[in-house]
Amino acid sequence: MKNSFITIVSGLPRSGTSMMMKMLEAGGMAVVTDNLRTADEDNPKGYYEFERVKQIESDKDWLPGAQGKAVKMISELLKHLPPNYQYRVVFMRRKIEETLASQKQMLVRRGQPTDVVSNEKLAELFRRHLERTFAWLEEQSNFAVLFVEYADVLQNVAAQAGRINEFLDKTLNVEKMIGVVDQTLYRQRK
Questions:
Q1: CA-CA distance, 178 to 61, in Å (whole number)?
Q2: Which residues fall within 8 angstroms of residue 104, CB to CB, at 6 or more apart?
Q3: How far is residue 122's CA from residue 154's CA, in Å, rounded to a whole number?
Q4: Would you say the pTM of this structure is higher than 0.85?
Q5: In whole angstroms, what is the distance from residue 93 CA to residue 97 CA?
Q6: Which of 13, 33, 90, 111 sits 20 to 30 Å CA-CA off 77?
Q7: Rg for the chain, CA atoms, rounded
Q8: How far apart are CA 177 and CA 27, in angstroms?
Q9: Interatomic CA distance for residues 8 and 15, integer angstroms
Q10: pLDDT per residue over 27-74, tens digit each?
């Protein structure tokens, strides 16, 4: 039977959300994606994005079709999810320094400036955002949250895949989840 909750894979950009979506898909969960943003050097396995997510403040019509499925959403948008659904959030966490290094590398590849805001300022903004987001999530009765450390998935994928499967009502094929994690994509280590 299909779960009635919506699985949200969230976190800061470059925190491992695409990897988590790939794991959930491999494990047998349907994913909500439009495949508009295609794989590239920064995400060679794909981005797993759904453009309508970015308009969640004004467009919620896609939510009924997301029940029983996983959708990727940056943490800044979580607060716009309506209260009349149940959500299971797999929240990806990664060292801020690694996240910033990964973002910087992506900007370099795209020929975009990397010095608009200092790393120190960005790190502080990210930390404050995460503190506010975690506090908000704790207050939401229709949200259940599992925090998953990006490095932990790469260091012990079997244990982490098992935790995720437990959190999502033991509906996933853990062996297949394990099989899609690519250690070589952990390129910015701190």
A1: 33
A2: 114, 119
A3: 25
A4: yes
A5: 12
A6: 111
A7: 16
A8: 5
A9: 14
A10: 999 999 987 766 556 555 657 889 999 999 999 999 999 999 999 999
